[in-house]
Amino acid sequence: MSEKVPLTPKRRSNFPSQPIKYRIVDHTEYAANKKILNEVFESDMVLTRDQMLDVIEDFKTRINGTSHRRRRRKAIVGNNLRWINRTIPYEFKDKDNKWQELIRNGIQKWEAETCLRFKTKGLEKDYIEFLKGGGCYSSVGRIGGRQYTSIGFGCEGVGIVAHELGHAIGFWHEQSRPDRDKYININEDHIYRGTKGNFEKRKDIEGLKDVPYDFGSIMHYGPQAFTDDYKYTTIETKDHRYQHTIGQRQDLSFTDIKQANLLYCNDICKNQISCQYGGYPNPHDCTKCKCPAGLAGVLCESLPISTFGCGGELFATAVWQTLTNTIEGECFWRINAPTNQRIHFEVLEANFECDSSCAENYLEIKHTDNFQRTGFRQCCNAAPGPIISQQNQVLVFSRSSKPSANFTIRYIIDSENLPPPPLAAWRGGGFTSLFGGETGIDNTFETYIIKELPKALKNDRPADRKPLDTLQTLISTFLRSTRTR
Ligand SMILES: [Zn+2]
Q1: How far is the CA of 234 from the centre of ligand 1 (A)?
Q2: What is the 3 state secondary structure string of the chain?
Q3: What residues does Zn(2+) bind to (predicted)?
């Protein structure tokens, strides 16, 4: 597709792309596929002629505003591309036991959470052949006859296998959803020449209005897909707090699983139970709901069980309170406010093992009006600045299998006249991340300075940290960033 046509005409207006100052480790299939990018679509999909024509048609429609081709697919893939009887026959092309085991583990991820079943091919005409190709790629949906899913060198992650199986089941990439421009910016300045087509949106991914855009989907690109310069990202989340949520290849997200269950397992539970927060009847046990991460109970009304010594229900009041955790394991909290009230909170610190996509050890916070979406994750770069919840609850959870696993949040019921926050222990968490170059693309940086600077100046800091020098840097960085606009 032509690279001359701008992809997102109304992309962000006021922020020039800035180099990042941290190193991104790409855990996605893209990293393994650099050699085969000319042969696959969006880095890892092998499309049929019809699928490619649809993509081109979407592209033309967007540029010219007209469509000549009748769109046939309504869901993620149309009925004709779905696997029959929820069963996906497959065959291994290679005898390597370890490699087969890896693929079985990826299969296990989908089978554990959905009604889909993968089985060794018998007489079926349509099936997947797993091969060790020159990268990681797959067809999308059931295309008829033998189709390939390649798990080649560099693809040795269960999450990558689960991603490729996602394509085989019928999923496109998360960032090609038609509503993606509300959530991410595509940084066209740094997309590798001639590869812009890989960032096209698709029109025909619809019919799943119950499932929100999910930064934590295993089908979402990482921040540097198709970049021409590793100092720059090609995908920036509009709310920069989600920048470390995208690109995870650790596990299926709640929405990945829900979409598969909607597509294939919708008719299994006949009795309807009223699941809350976007939960839905579990096809493995129709008397219980499958709940968004951070919620549990028969109807998703309660919290999952936490590791001993952490987690629980918290209640915001008109006085600042602090939540500090140092316990490793899985901890689930919910901050509650009275009906119609909002919670004002700040992440002061988050110290977990560093990773550009916080997928294994992290603090996750869900503060929007839709708990189905993966929350923003922080592992070693606490995003400073106040946040106001979109409903009267905030879900907070932390997951860590190794030290360190500590974070600090302070919270209060939101109001026009907030009392001044308590002095935070001066350990530099929030501040250092500013100097790490992670200035927000959503004005968080500015908000933070304007609101926090007077308070910071008042605080007593230990002399050896030279607070004034630090603030000087802060101020000059701020001025420089406004001058370049
Ligand atoms: Zn993919």
Answers
A1: 16
A2: CCCCCCCCCCCCCCCCCCCCCCCCCCCCHHHHHHHHCCCCECCCEECCHHHHHHHHHHHHHHHHCCCCCCCCCCCCCCHHHCCHHHEEEEEECCCCHHHHHHHHHHHHHHHHHCCCEEEECCCCCCEEEEECCCCEEEECCCCCCEEEEEECCCCCCHHHHHHHHHHHHCCCCHHHCCCHHHCEEECHHHECCCCHHHHCCCCCCCCCCCCCCCCCCCCCCCCCCCECCCCCCCEEECCHHHHHCCCCCCCCCHHHHHHHHHHHCCCCCCCCCCCCCCCEEECCEEEEEECCCCCECCCCCECCCCCCCCCEEEECCCCCEEEEECCCEEEEEEEECCCCCCEEEEEEEEECCCCCCCCCCEEEEECCCCCCCCCEEECCCCCCCEEECCCCEEEEEEEECCCCCEEEEEEEECCCCCCCCCCCCCCCHHHHHHHCCCCCCCCHHHHHHHHHHHHHHHCCCCHHHCHHHHHHHHHHHHHHHHHCC
A3: 163, 167, 173
